Amino acid sequence: MNVLALASTAAQAAPGVVPCRTRESELWFSESQTDIDRAQQLCRTCPLQVSCLSGAVARKEPWGVWGGELFEKGEIVAAKKPKGRPRKDADERARAAQERLNERLSGVA
Ligand code: SF4
What we know:
By secondary structure, the chain is mainly alpha-helical. It has helices at about 5-10, 20, 35-45, 50-60, 90-105, and strands at about 65, 70, 75.
């Protein structure tokens, strides 16, 4: 986890407009898919979303929600891996997450 990087990124925006700075920061590093979904939803309102996501990709963040995407071991994943059998829609969710990432990163450069 790189909490310092998160704090540094969040510090670039005015206080009160960066959700991970004003809400429970545990949501962004939770093991609960419900919390992660909420963190991703909040990231989508953040003015730093694109720069946060591109920075997280560049740093290969080991885990947590960054720029609205979930990272595990430096890679963007669609969802926390549930224990047991894989979800039936795992491939579809991974494709959707990749498409969202491609769209966001195409706006960065
Ligand atoms: S995009 Fe999400 S993780 Fe990044 S600074 Fe904004 S609220 Fe925090």
